[in-house]
Structures are given as C-alpha cells and as structure tokens.
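Quick one, T. Sequence first:
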Amino acid sequence: MKKIQGIDKEIKKLKAHLTQLKLNVKTRSMGVLLNQEATIRKKMKVVQYLLNQLEETNEQQIYQDYLRLLNDASEQSLNLYNEENETEYRLEEVIEGFEEEYMQNGVLYILLSRYLPGLMNSPHFAILPSHPKDEYPIARQMKRKFYLHLGETNTGKTYHAMKKLELGEDGIYLAPLRLLALENYEKMNQDGVKCHLLTGEEEVLIEGAHHISCTIEKLDLEKEYHVAVIDEVQLIQDSIRGASWTRAILGILSPEIHLCGALNVKSLLIQMITECGDEYECIEYFRNIPLQFESTAYQLNKPIKGDALIAFSKKKVLELSRYYQDRGFKTSIIYGDLPPEVRRIQYQSFSEGQSELLISTDAIGMGVNLPIRRIVFVSAKKFDGEVVRELTSQEVKQIAGRAGRKGIYEIGYVTGLDEHLAFVKEKLECKDEVIQQAIIGPHESMLEIKGIPLIEKLMIWENHYQDIHHYKKMDIERYLFVLTQIKHYKLSQWVQWKIMKLPVNFMQMDLLNLLLLYIEEHFINGNSELTKPRLHAEDLEILEIHYQEVNLYYSFSKVFHLEFDINWVYRERSKVSKKLNYLLLRL
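Structure tokens:
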C-alpha cells in the first residue's frame, strides 16, 4: 500500500509538471523546443516505468497526454525547420516507421538521420546517377583519347604536352596553381600562340586568342577544346582539391587530352578512362640529370649557394630565413599563404642569383623549374589539411626531383638534417604507394532536387556512390560550415552553391565576416557594388589576409556580375605584394 501511495504521489507531480510544459511548448525558439522535447521524452520514460509498477490503474491517460505534448513540440520544431529551410515536412510522414527511435531521439534526429537519407531511393534522386562518370553525359557521347605523360619530376612531361597544345587549333591548359597558369600563359604568347589567362584572381583576355591557360577550378565543361592538358594529375587524391581533377578527367570535352603527373597514378587513370569508354596511350619519362643522395647530414651553419631548404610550416620557413639573414645570407622564401606575385618575385630573385638560398614549403614541388643545386629536408612531416603525417615516398621524390638544372647543375643532390637522413633515403629508394582513389565532389545537378535544403542534400550525398571503391568523396566540412553561417539569409540554393564554391578559406574569421558583409550589401540591401576592404595594419599576417580580402571582393563581384573597380584590385594586390616582399627581405 505504501509503495502504491508513493507511485500515486509521483504521478501527481508529473501531472503538475505536464501543465507547466504545455506553456513552454508555445515558444518560437528552436533551442528551447529541442530541450522541451528531450525533457518530455524523459518524463514519458518515468511515467511508463511508474505505470508498469501498478497492476491496475486509471492513470493511463497521463501517458497519452505526454505523448500529445511531445507531438505538439515536435510539430513546432518541424514547423520552425520548415520556415527556415522553405520545406514542407509533416510529422506523420517523417516519423512513420521510426516511432521507437522518435521516442528515443526526437524528430530532428529522425528527419536528418533517417527520413532524408531514405529519400535517396525516391524518384527525387533519380537525378543523381549511379556512377560518377555519368554525371557528364555529353562527354560520354564524345570520342576522346588520353595521352598519359607520367614519370619523375623535372623530366619534361608538361613541356612535351604543351607542345602538342600549341599545335592545336584551340585548346586549354589546366594548372594546379595560378603561378603555373601564368607561366604557361606567358610561354605560349612568347611562342606566338595567343592565349588567355583565367584564374580565380584575374582574367587577361588576348584579342584573337583561341587558347586558354587557367587554374583547374576554372574549367568550363560546356565548351569544346581541340586539345587539353591537365597538369599534376596525381593531385586527384587530394582530399580538398582532388575533385577538380576528377571532374576535369571525366567531363572535359576534348578529343585529345594530355595528362601529366606521377607514375603511381597510372593504374587509377587507366581504370577511369576505360570505364568512360575512352582510349589512352601512355608515355613514361625518366630524368636526364642524375639525382644523388648525400649520406652526410646537412649542417645548417654550412649552407652552399643553390641550396633549397624544405620545411613544412610557414613558421619554420620564416625562422630559417631569419636565421640565415642574420648571418649575412640572402634568401628567397616560399610558402602557401604568399600571394602569387610575391612568390614570383622570390622565385626570380633566386633564379637570377640575387638570393643564395631558397627556404620553402613543399610549394616548390609543383611545376616551377628553378636552379636548385641541392634539396635539403629540414622536416619530414606535413599537415595535409586533415592530420600531421610523414611524407609519402612520392612527395619526397617530387620535391627532391627539383634538384639539378641542365646547363647549371648537371647533378642534383638531396640530403636532410641528421634526424631525417635515414627517412629521406628510405623514401627515395622505395616503390611509391599506388594511388587507388580519385576524389569526387558534389555535382550541381543536385540543385534540381526540390524540397530538400542544400545542407541536407550534401549530407545525403555523402552516402551516395558507396559501392564504387576507386572513388572517394571529398571532405565537405568547409562547405557545410559556410552554408551554416549564411543559412539565416534564406538565399536561393543556386546562390548558396556559388558562395560555397568561392575560392576563399572562410574558416578564417576576417574573410567570413567580409563575406557576410557582402551578402548583406548585395542580397539584402540590393547594392550593385561592394565596399572595398581596407588595410588596417602592415604586419605579415594582416597583409596576407588583406590580399585574400581583395580576392574575395574580386571573386564575389565576378560570380554575381556586380560592378567593381578592377584597376583598384590590381593596384591593391601590387601594393600588398611589394610590402610583403619588403618584409620578407627584412625578417
């Protein structure tokens, strides 16, 4: 009897709490509603437990009352979600078949983890093909032949491919870096082949030109090219940018396509090409200038002119440069955050002998040929965008391969600090690990799917193509971050897609804040011209960020066809680049 009285007392408390919860459910705050849902579900478990303790009871109604309240709160949450995302989901449809999980985890969990992924099997998703190659139907109807120029660094792969491009009636060169796009743009125009330059930072259009040199992200898949060259194709495995190489290989409209890169990507390329029904021919390249490993550990206090010291962080590069400048050595400095104009000045200084030493990250591993006598590994680990890891054998060989220059250094040397010497030797001698997966990114065809917010489409896309093992989906964390930050503006999905694809790192808060300002100015206030970013200080970090702000001003204006001051863009970039170069010379 005492036990029954105690249970009755607890049930009365639950009834009183029910009245208070009914008042709270009327809120318009998603956060409060989700907390209320969680509280109601916990109370329902307690009610169920207490009722199970009683053999006979007239109190079953309390459980039904709590269930109705949970459904009311869930409908409120779903309505707010629908308003925010311009969708029309109904509670009964979302939780059907998932009632037990709904009681455990709530309506938004069911929506995002069960209901929306379930739509993958619905007619909506017939838009998404069953294989990445079929995202490019026009290319699948075209007869294409690939020429694979594969081999070691500094062996003339790109040189031979570019000669084929210059012979074409028209064509396109796709570069991994703006600096390489610029270099080949200049080379083709010098060779008498008129050529445009297209990058995320500029457009230089030459009258009468039928050739294009551009960064790979600028490829227009709707245009046809007689000849195409895709450089540094081993980057197809890069978790952040690799999808651009996959897109180019699968989708470019050209009967003659030259791929340049490392030999360890050969089998993957052949698999992709044959699946597309295309033909291929492979040409392998080997060094004319021998590469010699120095078994004596490098001594930092005994550099020789022509040495290139390789570290894998901006901090280490600047420390080394400061160390040598303090001892009277002139240095050139290269790292990822440097604007292309500054890199070019630094490269030129080293090439012309004004600088004795080159201090660089692995940024020198791609494309640009320099008079380097010896490569020195000061570090053996790098941050790859996800984790800090040891260099692969292919990365070591690609960087080491920059040593030696015909007519200047007939032998290239490679060495390292004492603690890295054995590692470098091992990686130079071992067989490269074969690249087995091409990175793929979300295709814009998903914009045709109606009734699902873009963020959810991307999350569902991550579960698509699960059974095709030689393709791997890119890391979309940055896309999701940007879309979350701009969600409250209620922009069209086309606009959201264009914004998330802008070539800017919005994880940098200054750049994110500028993006939000530009969205306010154009999409909320209706301005046809954006505010120019201002430089507030002149230290190294701020100058680098300001250069990116100028690029955002340019890219946002170009993508959304706004009026902008192109002359100011060029002047500001030039001003920042000169100031950065001045600081690097006086570290």
